[in-house]
Batch of 2 targets.
Target 1
Amino acid sequence: MAEGRVVPEVDRAAAARKAVERRRARAALKRDLTMRVVSPQTVLARAIADADSVAGSMRITDFLLALPAIGAGKRDRILEELRISPVKRLGGLGARQRVQLQQWLDGRFPQPQPREGRSRLLVLAGPTAVGKGTVAAHIRDHHPDIHLSVSATTRAPRPGEIDGVHYYFVDDAEFDRLIADGELLEHAVVHNRSRYGTPRAPIEAALAEGKTVLLEIDLQGARQVRAAEPSATLIFLLPPSWDELVQRLVGRGTEDQEERARRLRTAKVELAAQSEFDHRIVNDTVADAAREVVELSSGSAR
Ligand code: 5GP
């Protein structure tokens, strides 16, 4: 009989380890919510699909508190308004509570609405170290029909970077000249440091040839392109998790600690702007993310 059985030591140790793992996974998911790496609607959907999942085992109080700009006072008011007991877990909500919570989330955290029609001008942005460059390079290597814009920058080349392939490496005076002569479609100072800009002429030429053009630029640049070319398709690349983003930034090893901290601050600000974009793509594997980007182009066969 189960009740009378003494739980063997190994089972207890395994259960304890599992509990620690679950707590860690919940803490990581909370970070993802706070940093907006995952939308609250996605977490709720996961909880509903599987009450035993990490999302399903999260307390409603922790869930709400992890959302951007929700403090304890606001959390309690929301729970009262939605008539949800604070002891509930996300996976244990009643059908009515789920619908009400969903509606509240949609009002507070609007999901991007895919736009009508397709454009041949694709803009790929997203937080630092998310792998925009790798996804763009994958597209360059596998889709020669897509024109990948080569930016001008005032930063120094990294080892292995080739002038004219990865960037046009220019000095400040030359960058000033490009701006003055109207040769840049957009330009911005990135990470408070170097200047980056998109040369206009090659893009216009590629579009005139009927090609799809891909720009891999920062958030400020994406906004400028949207203002100049409202039909452009803006794509936001997301990391699979906040922890993964931090890992990628550290693992890259190309920046010192101060620079990494600066870039993580920028990443947080950039993640907060994702609702301005038409599409969000999670960079789980480079090939899949690249395929999803290509599928958004009007030239792609579907
Ligand atoms: P990195 O120095 O690591 O190559 O790039 C730093 C950041 O500059 C990345 O977020 C990248 O998307 C952005 N960037 C690269 N080229 C351009 C550009 O032409 N315009 C803008 N606005 N940002 C760019």
Target 2
Amino acid sequence: MTYQYWNPRMETLPRAELEAYQLTKLKDLVRYALRTPFYQKRLHQAGIKDGEDIKTLGDLKRIPFATKLDLRAAFPYGLLSIPLDEVVRLHASSGTTGTPTTIYFNKEDIIRWTGFVARSIYATGCNKTDVFQNMITYGLFTGGLGFHFGGEAVGMLVIPSGSGNTTRQFKLMQDFGTTVVHATPSFLLHVEAKMREEGITRESLKLKRAFAGAEPYSEDTRRRIEELLKIDVYNSYGLSEMNGPGVAFECQCKNGLHLWEDGYIAEIINPDTLEPVPEGETGELVLTCLCREATPILRYRTRDRSGFYTEPCSCGRTHRRLYRITGRTDDMLIINGVNLFPSQIEEVIMSMKEVGNNYCIVVEKEGVLDRLTVKTEVGPDIFMDDARPLNALKERIRKTLQACITINPRVELHESGSLPVSEGKATRVQDNRPKDV
Ligand code: DLL
């Protein structure tokens, strides 16, 4: 097979040169970071007062890890390194409380990020002749605009269809001859089920490829989508703190995700000891973003479990490959691609005085999609035999939750004292989805 490279020199740079490049970028990053209130204190405490205090890549270890909690504490501008009038965009992801984590970009940051997404798309064999339907949420979520700009940079015709509404998605695919789509893996499975339901034949579509990410999925799921839809599916990994998509992506070998090491420095640590794990072992992925000036983030604990393949890829790229992400080291749930912390649910329901003390969150598969049910007890003053006020309460809880978590949950009300109480640490979450990852 012949492989195409978006940036041939950078994608095949010998490791020594790649690391030298990373060091230059790291020095710049430290300089940007020193302009932010958040990092000024941290870096000074670590004895780093200038970019030149970083002499080797090993010096990165002198900088403490950053967590989602840190980013929230720095909200809104504690991590901003440039004047606000140079910022051209922000993206945000939900936090564990009402405070989101917000990432700012200047014009060059957007151009660099777009370059990494374009490189990723190109690595799968796409080119300007492709018609790309971006079936993912636009807005504050990075998946929409990130892939949109990346697709345009490749020169593809980009259809900004957004997620949902499968009937309209099929119409767009047929009208414009879509050859490549981007979606969460669960939405791709849903699309396939709907195709059968609506009698859309595979032959009426020109689909060849899909980019699937934003949530964990197994190799079996990939194969299933590929066989059902008769397309190639490429795994796409990213997170809003590191710009969004375009952090790591599979090439045509489909054997691990190339982490773009001219944009990101990766470490794999043991989440308990915080020490690096031996090469090839899995642990928690820690990332430093070398390609963004406006919001510098160093050594971010992603909470994602992964590790690095040790042998090189046959595509010739020198950037190391991550194992498929197998889960998280915290309690964050990903429901149809939307991130959710159980504490967000707790905060909403516990602020309602009619709600009792005990609750439970259930996640399961309904068909191919994830389904969230929130079971909560009512307070002792609420009568379970009076359906009207109960239904009104249920609806109010559902709407308030939906407004906060952007997922439409099913709500069940239970009599006070009727939900099982666990001895010791409460187990609030029952994730009944098949563990095939
Ligand atoms: O999900 C960015 C993205 C958009 C990636 C579109 C790929 C495609 P967040 O909303 O901040 O950003 O969620 C990031 O999602 O830390 C992982 O836990 C999970 N995740 C993302 N991609 C994958 C993947 C976007 N391919 C969080 N496999 C990350 C497994 C993934 N988990």
